[in-house]
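Reminder to self: tokens first, then the designed residues, so the page reads top to bottom the way the pipeline ran.
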């Protein structure tokens, strides 16, 4: 599971294509669908703004 830092996200759309589960969408601001996210963290390195933050389970 990852978190989107809304304060950093510029809505650039890059992360949407990084997610193999299509858990990320972006309409002005990136959004995560937690039901689809498998926690693979493939999206982490894609955000040029560092707005995608890894979150450990239960934390
Ligand atoms: S790549 Fe980063 S800045 Fe761009 S839409 Fe995704 S979370 Fe926002
Ligand atoms: S952690 Fe994996 S499944 Fe979850 S949003 Fe990122 S790329 Fe998609």
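Designed residues (59 positions):
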């Amino acid at each position: 599971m990852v978190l989107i830092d809304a304060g950093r996200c510029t809505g650039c759309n890059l992360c949407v294509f990084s997610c193999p589960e299509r858990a990320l969408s972006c309409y002005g601001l990136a959004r995560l669908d937690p039901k689809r996210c498998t926690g693979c963290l493939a999206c982490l390195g894609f955000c040029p703004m560092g707005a995608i933050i890894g979150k450990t389970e239960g934390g």
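Residues 2-54 form a domain with the Alpha-Beta Plaits fold (CATH 3.30.70.20).
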